[in-house]
Amino acid sequence: MNILKIKNWYSRNHIHIKAWAFFIIYEVFITGLIFGIWSTFGNHLFHYALNISLFYLHAYGVQKILRSNLRFNAWLIIPFVLIELIAYLALAYPIDYLISKTVGTGFKSELVFNEVYVLRALWRALYFIGFSTGYVFLLNSLKERRRVQKLERQNLVNTIEKQALENDLVQSQNNFLRSQINPHFLFNTLNFIYNDARKKAPLAADAIMNLSEMMRYALKRPEASELVPLSEEVEQIEHLINLHKLRTANTINFDLIVNGDLFGLRFPPLIMLTLVENMFKHGNIAHSTQPSIVQIDYDRKTLSLTTINMINEVKKKEVESHHVGLENIDKRLNNFYKDKYSFKFYKDPLNRYFTEIKVDVENPMAGLN
Predict the structure, then answer these.
(1) How many C-beta atoms lie closer than 10 Å to residue 239's C-beta?
(2) Distances in Å between the alpha carbon of 193 and those of 198, 206, 240?
């Protein structure tokens, strides 16, 4: 177990160990070659232990000062260095004295506490403090560089997510409006047909008007990052329900329930319309006893959107594509609301399919431009 701990410690600190070993060997040999004096092992051991301790103590202290919330905290480094120098002198001379009386220093001159000794000791201390300061700023520089790289990666991810969101919005619009021609030509033609059919076939005229309003709304093409008034989406849901009622001679069993004032409330576009369209596409909306329900509840703090419909057994093969659409809705909701929403979809024992969206909307005017 101890061997494993030593291996783990070495793997974390091997760069420091190798750097200090190289530095000590370099200094010892340079000093010996230049001055022709080779000190004792004990002298080197105690002095480098003191200097290396000063190096890490200074690095730790400077990092603490720079991370503190004190105003002008960088100026605290000056008194901190002065305290370090005083402490270094207070330790260096007793250590030198003990070494000279025990293992020896290897130098011929006697140890004397004078001006020369003080200047030499202070220079040595400042030498390691300077290295330590550079070490701290190198660490901070590397940390800042990693932070910038992380932000750049996050920006890239956000850009990709935004592009994916825009693609999902386009897909929703394309699913809602399968084909498009020139809008001006389209609406002029629909208006002509509506005016011509209003007297001869009122039901057909109503269908044309509902379809025209829905297509006009879909062709607005809001940006993927925009919210739209939820009341407009509700109007389009009403148009869609009216169209299906006209198409099926009012045989569908479908209710739209709105509780709360939706004025000023904004919501991602085409999400509710997509859910309602899925009800018509995949559900049994003509069930005699189980109505399909779209319910919107808003109490100024929470927005709840619920759809309930019987599952159409004939269309079960389309469930996979249905789930893909729901996953796209979940991604779009997450992009707008992050952790302030929930989205569930499930089947109950009565063979009913539920979708439930709940959003925390503290400020109903959020997103209003």
Answers:
(1) 21
(2) 8, 11, 19
- The answer to whether 344 touches 274, Cβ cutoff 8 Å, is no
Phi, psi (5° rounding) for residue 306?
-130, 135
Calculate the CA 276 to chain-centre distance: 31
How is the chain split among helix, strand and coil, in percent rounded to 5? Answer: 65, 10, 20
Tokens encoding 131: 């290295």
Q: How far apart are CA 213 and CA 227, in angstroms?
A: 19
Residue 274 CA to residue 144 CA, distance in Å, equals 45
Instruction: Determine the length of the chain.
Output: 369
Burial class (CB in 10 A: 0-12, 13-18, 19+), 19: exposed
Say how far apart CA 302 and CA 309 lie, in whole Å: 23
> Could you give the C-alpha distances from 172 to 201, 268, 313, 344, 357, in angstroms and in order?
32, 12, 25, 19, 18
Report CA-CA distances (Å) from 66 to 84, 148, 355: 17, 19, 52
In this predicted model, what pLDDT tens digit does every residue of 47-75 receive, in sequence order?
Answer: 788 888 888 888 888 888 877 765 556 67
Give the closest residue to 211 by CA, choosing from 197, 222, 231. 197
Element (H, E) at 360: strand 352-360
Q: Which residue bears the tokens 């793997």?
A: 11
Could you tell me where the DSSP H helices lie in 36-113? Answer: 41-67, 77-101
The answer to whether 84 touches 124, Cβ cutoff 8 Å, is: no
Q: DSSP state, 283? A: E
Beta strand pairing status for 302-311 and 254-259?
Answer: unpaired
217: Cα separation from own chain's centroid: 33
Give the pLDDT confidence score for residue 225 in this predicted structure.
62
Query: End-to-end alpha-carbon separation of the chain, Å?
Result: 64
Spatial contact of 268 and 333, defined as CB atoms under 8 Å apart: yes
Tell me whether strands 292-298 and 254-259 are parallel, antiparallel or unpaired.
Answer: parallel
pTM: 0.48
Q: Which two structure tokens, joined as six digits, stand for 57?
A: 């103590």
Convert the pLDDT of each residue in 198-221 to its tens digit.
Answer: 766 777 777 777 777 777 776 665
